[in-house]
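Notebook, bench 3.
Goal today: get a predicted structure for Thioredoxin family protein from Thiomicrorhabdus immobilis so we can plan the truncation constructs. The sequence was checked against the plasmid map this morning, with no discrepancies at the termini. Length recorded as 184 residues. Pasting the sequence as submitted so the record is complete.
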Amino acid sequence: MVSLTTPICDFNAPAMQFDLPGVDGQNWTLDKAKGKNGLLIMFICNHCPYVKAIQQRLVEDTRILRDDFGINSIAIMSNDPNEYEEDSFENMQVIAEKWAFPFPYVLDETQQVAKAYGAVCTPDFFGYNADLKLQYRGRLDESRKETSPEGVRRDLLEAMKQVAQTGQGPLEQIPSMGCSIKWK
């Protein structure tokens, strides 16, 4: 397993179009996924210990962003499931149901969406404003392979609240860290 950190935010880069199958039986596009005040695109998977460590907070924070701030979220799984069976579409359905994901969980089977976005690891977060211009490319919080203790700063939640309110993300952002995407 290779641990990587994400590049710095390329402010105002446009969101790329996609059309991907979700575990809910629907196909999801950029326009269908976005919220009134923005969209959080998350590259995650099932097997990564960095993702497992944040699943509960991810669910809580994305629900707050959707319900209180008009920012929707979508999770994209781009790993090669032939390398990690835990990342299969069937297991994606299990995880989405187990955690009651308040966002679509979609499969990027060709890995073209991950490549278009420049995603490098799981988790990798791309926070867009209402105009779908990139404003955040940082971490959820200080969790690594273990969940951080209660009371730590929730970087992603605070940044995306700012995006919802002002259209702009914070200038200071701490990169996300996680397992490398498993390319075919």
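Strands lie at 3-5, 19-21, 27-29, 38-43, 71-77, 105-107, 121-122, 124-128, 134-136, 177-180. The chain has a mean pLDDT of 95.
Flagging this for group meeting.
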